[in-house]
Amino acid sequence: MQGGSRREEEEEEEEEEELNIGELASNLSTYKQQLHQVRELLNDEPTNSEYVDMERELSEVIALTEELLSTAKQNEISTATQSPTPTYNKLDLHTHFDHQHQFPVGTGVQAVYSDDGDWYDATVEAYTPNGYYVSYDTWGNKEEVDPR
Asked: Where does the record place Acidic residues bias (predicted)?
């Protein structure tokens, strides 16, 4: 029984790494946009010490984020050869009352994102009294999804 439990932990760690890659990539894009804006401000006010500090700090954050992203991608490549590609299931549970047994934590699913009503690939992270707490694979956004 302990071996199965360890495998589940490994799968959860792999899923977290995948989410982190999406979050890191999104953050990196944001940081680069912010750096571009700060540099434009510096063109207008090259002696502004706050802008100089922001440029230095954003450059450091970008370098660190790029390093983390590179490491996360290398880890994903090494684990991708060990585990099969996840399949995604629609979160349509009208016929199943006990939803916890239908989609275990870590299962790849498709869920409706509340902001736009569209279906997206997601991963079940936890059970809630009303359904599931999912993380959307592409952006890393998380929310509760009611399966009904």
From this structure: 9-20
